[in-house]
Amino acid sequence: MTPASTWRRPASCPCRRCTGCRPRPPPRRRDRIPGSAAARRRHGRGRRARPGPYIRESRRIRALTTVTEQDLSVAVRGDKGAVSYHDSVGVGMYRIDLHPSTGGDNYIDVACSPFEIPLGALIPQRMTNLLPACKNIGTTHITNGAYRLHPVEWNVGEAAGALAAFCLDRATTPHAVRASERLLADYQDRLTQDGVELRWPDVTGY
Prior knowledge:
Blueprint: H1 37-42, H2 74-77, E1 88-92, E2 96-98, E3 108-110, E4 115-118, H3 144-147, H4 150-170, H5 174-179, H6 181-193
Antiparallel strand pairs: 1-4, 2-3
């Protein structure tokens, strides 16, 4: 076969393109051709969201409440289930899973009970004008393995947004909402009206 760089269409060949005589370039996937419609669909330009890095763990606030492994581990809590918080603003469920650690463990997996999201984990100890809204709530490196999941993040974000709006409506602060039984009950009622589940039914962990 003649190299493509030196190919010339034979004078006797009736084909003006002569694709059968010359070497063909290797096939290219359409979604890998820069600027093509398939590439834009694959890489998120247009209707789809642009892909980005997944942040598994972030910095966390020093919260009024810090959720620890003893609060939701099945090995610790047993049939009692996870700790129930009077200031719950949502629920979540996922096993505590940790990826490679500095101790040489390739994977750590701990059975977990269905848990609640305490409002105290969304309120910083010192700052009065700051609210976390995703993985930066009051958890530990261990419990972040369960609280990091998207459904929990979405719940945290919804609760934080509702809390900010509630505080503006009542001319108060997040600390005051948690400290007042009346304000806390009103805020939780607003979450419930918006469809946020605050308690789990009688279910067990795995």
